């Protein structure tokens, strides 16, 4: 283990972006982009265990975690806008190269960043971060209705996702044993999702997710052209992003270290130790 994780902020376009930083900046860098409904908190095990050999940076997006939560009057919550902020955040570190880790929302945000500056990315670590239509599971049914019609009724139908039970389901569904999952995870997410305006902001992102799907062909072309080495560490029982999304990468990439686990959406919670060892092996080969 390296030095203890530090908790910092950078001001980007007037928004304070919180991030967790661990390790020596002289070591190979890994930028870790989180998913919904969580924050950089999801990477706490990696920061603790990998800081001896790597430099790790795990930010929170605007409206997530400990970053500022600007009102919808001053900030339009779209993946384009969030990726613009996070792209500037990454550039602040002036890294010559880095490995990107993506999960869930980290994929559409991360692929926007890497396609804008592909020369910096040495490899991608992918934990249930989708870039293929075949990788959209049956849990998208309600959100697809929202895409078709952004009505109050269709928005209200999705509110259960923000309840304590709904959040617990996201962490425990598909796991081998729910007792392996720390309940602090969904309790912390519930606290943040209980802030005024949080439901509307997240529903806006649900609606905007359709624009990520439209960009899938561009991201697939990036993969085919630049061939970044990819480590896949995928929870195969994910209702949102099933294993079909993981397999799709193998059609476009020649260098894939492919690993699936008998767990759910947040594979790090149940398979953190195994994934940490895979990351060490992957990084050693780059």
Question: In summary, what is this structure?
Answer:
The chain is of the alpha/beta class and 286 residues long. The protein has ten helices and eight strands.
Q: How does the overall form come out from the CA principal axes?
A: globular
Beta percentage is 15-25%
Secondary-structure class? alpha/beta
| Mean pLDDT score | 97
Largest sheet entry: 8 strands, mixed
Count the helices. How many? 10
Query: Uncertain segments of ≥5 residues (pLDDT<50)?
Result: none
Strands, count: 8
Q: Within the largest sheet, what's the order of strands?
A: 1-2-4-3-5-6-7-8
Q: What is the gyration radius calculated from CA atoms?
A: 18 Å
Helix content range:
40-55%
N-to-C SSE string, H for helix and E for strand: EEEHEHEHEHHHHHEHEH
Distance between the termini: 21 Å
Would you give an account of this structure?
- This protein is α/β, with parallel strands linked by helices.
- Helix content is 42%, strand content 17%.
- It is built from ten helices and eight strands.
- The chain has helices at 44-50, 79-91, 106-116, 141-148, 152-156, 164-172, 184-193, 198-226, 243-252, 267-285, and strands spanning 6-12, 15-22, 29-33, 55-59, 98-102, 121-126, 230-235, 256-261.
- Strands 1-2-4-3-5-6-7-8 form an eight-stranded mixed sheet, with helices on both faces.
- The longest helix is centred in the C-terminal third of the chain and has 29 residues, at 198-226.
- The protein is globular and about 50 Å long.
- It starts with 5 loop residues before the first strand and ends with a helix.
- The model has no long low-confidence stretch (mean pLDDT 97).
């Amino acid at each position: 283990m390296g030095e203890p994780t530090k908790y910092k902020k950078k001001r980007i376009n007037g928004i304070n972006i919180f991030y967790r930083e661990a390790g020596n900046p002289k070591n190979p860098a890994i930028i870790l982009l989180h998913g919904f409904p969580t924050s950089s908190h999801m990477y706490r095990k990696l920061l603790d265990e990998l800081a001896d050999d790597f430099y790790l940076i795990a930010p929170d997006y605007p409206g997530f975690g400990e970053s500022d939560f600007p009102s919808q009057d001053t900030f339009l919550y779209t993946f384009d806008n969030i990726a613009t902020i996070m792209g500037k955040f990454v550039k602040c570190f002036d890294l010559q190269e880095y490995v990107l880790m993506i999960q869930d929302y980290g994929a559409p945000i991360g692929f926007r960043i890497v396609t804008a500056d592909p020369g910096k990315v040495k490899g991608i670590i992918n934990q249930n971060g989708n870039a293929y239509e075949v990788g959209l599971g049956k849990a998208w049914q309600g959100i697809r209705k929202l895409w078709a019609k952004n009505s109050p009724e269709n928005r209200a139908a999705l509110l259960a996702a923000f309840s304590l039970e709904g959040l617990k389901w996201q962490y425990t569904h598909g796991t081998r044993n729910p007792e392996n999952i720390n309940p602090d995870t969904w309790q912390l997410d519930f606290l943040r999702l209980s802030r005024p305006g949080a439901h509307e902001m997240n529903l806006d992102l649900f609606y905007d997710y359709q624009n990520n799907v439209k960009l899938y062909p561009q991201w697939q072309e990036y993969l085919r052209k630049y061939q970044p080495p990819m480590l896949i560490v995928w929870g195969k029982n994910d209702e949102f992003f099933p294993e079909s999304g993981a397999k799709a990468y193998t059609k476009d990439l020649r260098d894939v270290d492919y690993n699936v686990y008998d767990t759910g959406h947040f594979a790090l919670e149940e398979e953190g130790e195994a994934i940490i060892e895979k990351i060490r092996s992957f990084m050693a080969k780059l």
